[in-house]
Design goal:
The protein is an alpha+beta fold. It has four helices and eight strands; from the N terminus they run ββαααββαββββ. It folds into two domains: 62 residues, no CATH class; 96 residues. The longest helix has 22 residues.
Length: 167
């Protein structure tokens, strides 16, 4: 049996969980079919219960945009929604000089800097944003995540300063 570990990064993490493998390939000889089935079932149980590892479909989406026909459309749609969201909130906060809105072309993130504000104000801003999205029937997740398949919000402090950035 050969295990090829290509990544130990969990791509949809809810915290720092270094033991969850991101991409692992397993090679098992045909004469060990029962063992192969057992390992496959256990990996699937673990992946489904912990959100760890990637299915072949998820891996193809993340690794090679030419693998699946709709992959380019999905990426373009995410970028379009991000750009539209940026334009909407930029217009909304245009007159407020205490909020800096940052969006780089081709990146599925929008950053907000509540200039001169601390952790409490960022938490209040998240509560307001969460309330706003609930009115639209959208669940807003506060977490850190590599992926952009779910609407995700996080704020983080800049080391050595009292500043925070909202993403």
């Amino acid at each position: 049996i050969i295990f090829v570990v290509r990544s130990l990064i969990k791509l949809d993490q809810m915290g720092l969980e270094l033991t969850n493998g991101g991409i692992i390939e397993v090679f098992i000889p045909n004469h060990l079919r029962k063992l192969k089935n057992f390992i496959e079932e256990e990996f699937n149980k673990f992946r489904n219960s912990h959100g760890a590892n990637l299915s072949l479909y998820e891996y193809c989406l993340l690794d090679n945009s030419l693998t699946l026909k709709n992959d380019w459309n999905y990426s373009d749609l995410v970028m379009k929604f991000t750009s539209n969201f940026y334009a909407d909130i930029k217009d909304l906060f245009m007159e407020n000089s205490d909020i800096e809105i940052i969006h780089e072309e081709g990146v599925p993130f929008v950053f907000l800097d509540l200039i001169g504000e601390g952790k409490k104000e960022y938490e209040m801003f998240f509560q307001w944003l969460n309330f706003f999205y609930k009115q639209l029937g959208i669940t807003l997740y506060a977490r850190n995540s590599f992926g952009f398949r779910n609407l995700t919000v996080e704020y983080f402090g800049i080391i050595g300063t009292e500043r925070y950035i909202f993403k």
